[in-house]
Amino acid sequence: MSIKQITNGYEVDCRPQGRDGKRYRKKFTTKGEAQKYERWLLSTQNQKDWIEKTADKRPLIDLIHLWYHYHGQQLKTGPRELKHLITINADLGNLRADQLTRQRFMQYRADKMAGGMKPASINRNQTRLSSVFTALIKAEEFHNEHPFKGMGPLKVRAPEMGFLTKAEIKQLLTNLSGDELHIAKLCLSTGARWSEAAELKTSDIVHGRVTFGDTKNGKNRTVPITDELLKEIAHGKSGRLFNGSYTVFLARLKKQNFDIPKGQASHVLRHSFASHFMMNGGNILTLQKILGHSTIMQTMTYSHLAPDYLNEAMKYNPVSTL
């Protein structure tokens, strides 16, 4: 479907039922009229529940690139997500859109689990591919039933969340120096990811508040720091604040032989901040804002560390109230 500019106006050229369906062509004076007609065609000629919709036989890879055109390129992680989707398409066998059924994707999940892929990773791939159809349906580029409708994610065992004790934090900081030490202190003081802290500029700190701009979800967040830390990390500096090496930090961290769950070394400073924040009586909603989580469920991972967590069990159990 398309609206193209012609002499003295615009022309709608549309096949609401797909490539093999009836073709509608009509000329209009203004683009607005053409757009209204196109939307009318789609709503009246395609969305008839009693008429079987023509199967969408476009290659899945074409829909993936359409998703990137309409939605993916707006995302901070768009290019990376596109690479993941291209890989998923190849793993599925370069299907057509009509061949992607719930049964076919469930077989994909089973094959990946048998090959050792973790359920959480499979769920991320399911979400990625599902979002393609969600975006294209909103853009009126896909008119069949959502292939993932009614398909839930695999059950994922909650991972153990590793963090450093106060003694371990002291030990780690003692074994760091230079900008590696400064970045580590900033992460432990604000809950920032290493990459967020490492890229800071002097202009990102105003009135004792640090603003992290290049965040994972694309939203800025601001966290205050102490005057002492501010003087330590920004005294006499201009431009970029740090020149620290994550590789150097990681090597020093591993030398300490802390009991950190596999795969969590990169976020151990962030987890340590959040864990101690809750253990010291911090508010879970405040923590959500500091960490920049889009949903409270992400932050609830740390709720069990609150000092009064489930204390009502002692107060309201039937024995205590006899």
UniProtKB/TrEMBL annotation:
Keywords: DNA integration, DNA recombination, DNA-binding. The keyword Lipid metabolism does not apply. GO terms for molecular function: DNA binding. GO terms for biological process: DNA integration; DNA recombination. InterPro entries: CB (IPR044068), DNA_brk_join_enz (IPR011010), Int_N (IPR057084), Integrase-like_cat_sf (IPR013762), Integrase_catalytic (IPR002104), Integrase_recombinase_N (IPR010998), Tyrosine_recombinase_XerCD (IPR050090). Residues 159-315 form the Tyr recombinase domain. Residues 58-137 form the Core-binding (CB) domain. Pfam families: Int_N, Phage_integrase. It comes from the Bacteria. CDD domains: INT_Rci_Hp1_C. This is Tyrosine-type recombinase/integrase. It comes from Moritella marina ATCC 15381.
